[in-house]
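Forgive a beginner's question, but would it be possible to get a protein, spelled out as residues, together with the matching structure tokens, please?
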Amino acid sequence: MGLKEGTRVPRLVKVAGLIGLVGVAATGCSTDEVLRFGWPKGITPQADAMRNLWTWSVIAALAVGVIVWALIFWSVAFHRKKKNDDELPRQFQYNLPLELLYTAIPFVMVVVLFFFTATTQNKVLATPANPDEKVNVVAFQWNWEFNYPGYQTPDGQPVRTVGSSSEIPLLVIPVGERVEYDIRSTDVIHSFFVPAWHFKRDTFPNPEKNDQNTKFQNTVEKEGSFVGRCAELCGTYHSMMNFEVRALSKDKFDRYMQLRTQVNPETQRPYTAAEALAEMNCGELCTPHAVTGVPFNTDRTGGQPSGLGVSNN
């Protein structure tokens, strides 16, 4: 009987290990995906900070889980009641040192987790003075406006991109520079969400009255086109309230802004976002709507942007 029990435990360990290996292999995940524990890749340092917090939190949780599972398995395997065994195992329900240990360990774990969570949060939400660029983000039913207070068109207005039923708005930003976003709404609560940034912030009407922090900053680390969405149910066409982030290298961004502050000789009006990108002729990166495509054929005019009467897109 003892010999059979001695060989059964290693066999169970081998079977459990095999099941674990098959489970990992069956997921079809790459090594990098496994190490990220399902967390998608981001394109900002802030996203990387959140991924590190997630990864190490999962590792810590797995470590605790392994210890707990080992203790449970140990108790089940080696402290079972045997035949003709009428004696109860030694009782520990009033063991004060053990109870203090059980209380102290979870407390330390919570404190450590809180510390790293607060540190990561402070890093993600930091807004140092003098960012490289500033963008005002205005949400309205059911579209977006992006305006750049540091740049003006020939008629003295800020460079502005306003979405419409015929055009998805483009948020054009430089790569490798710190950009500050000031977000607000003209009507109901919306939510500014770029999945590739791993960041979402609700947009409120009259945020000062609600004591809402409207600003955040980030730095996009690579060129590309990235979809943006409204992530707060805001009415009839909420699902169609999309926008597109276009991250350009610094020289392309400077060229883009140079065009946006000039008059298009063909239209005799300031260049729109789409016209400026097309004029730059830098391949797919300068193709309007490379990610989100043409908007749905619907009249998304429930609200108004902040620049009433301004037709510059």
